[in-house]
Amino acid sequence: MTNVIDMETVSWDNGSAHRSRMHLIAEEPLSIRIQGRPYSVIMRTPGDERAHAAGFCLGEGIVDRLSDFQSISRCDGEDANVIAVTLNDERRQRMEHITDRRGFVSQTSCGICGREVIDDVRRFADPLSDGSTLSIGNALAAMNHFNGLQELRKATKATHAAAIYDANLALLSSAEDVGRHNALDKAVGRLFLENRLPEAALVILSSRISYELVQKAVRARIPIVLAISRPTTLAVSLAKELNLTLACLSRDSDLYVFCGGQRLVA
After folding, report:
1. CATH no. for residue 215?
2. Catalytic residue of the set 110, 113, 248, 259
3. 259 catalytic residue (yes or no)
């Protein structure tokens, strides 16, 4: 695992210090440039840069479909931690109000209330249709399988993961990263670049569910989000507005369902 770095540490045991080695996860900045201009710098685990940028752009509302990209490429040499995104002419003209400034809902600031965040997201994220259902037993089985996908976490105890499944619970895409948003962007971005995102029916997250993750799931049109940890109040409010199913593990290894329960059946 190239993103796992072996580093020296000092451990204390019964008052005595011992030198040892420990696996740590790599973290580096990724600069995403749109139309030649800096748009965002993201601290992330290196790898899957094109997928990461593609998923990020979809989640931000910069693109709606793969054809909106003219190109998406990683720079070489000293700019290896830079992804250059170019939009086609039609999309570029439509998105100038976004690309000329640094994001909107993804950059929180003082004075923004929950209602304003929800209204902002709804401007570029349409509510989901009800679609197919998932049995709670199968949902829990998928969550048990999810633990086996986190190889970087096993080695470092320092990463988040996202895994996307189809309606038959076949694994479509998974990713790990130091950032929970990054893991989801990478998993979504892989499918987006392969034109397979319409197959996605479920995403499982290792983290709590924040409103940004709800935004990314809805933009990817993934109707069910399951997580190890609970959602925030704003995440639930936004998910209700956009007809997204949110659930997490309960203390007795069952499910807490916060909204969209019509998709989860006994």
Report:
1. 3.40.140.10
2. 110
3. no
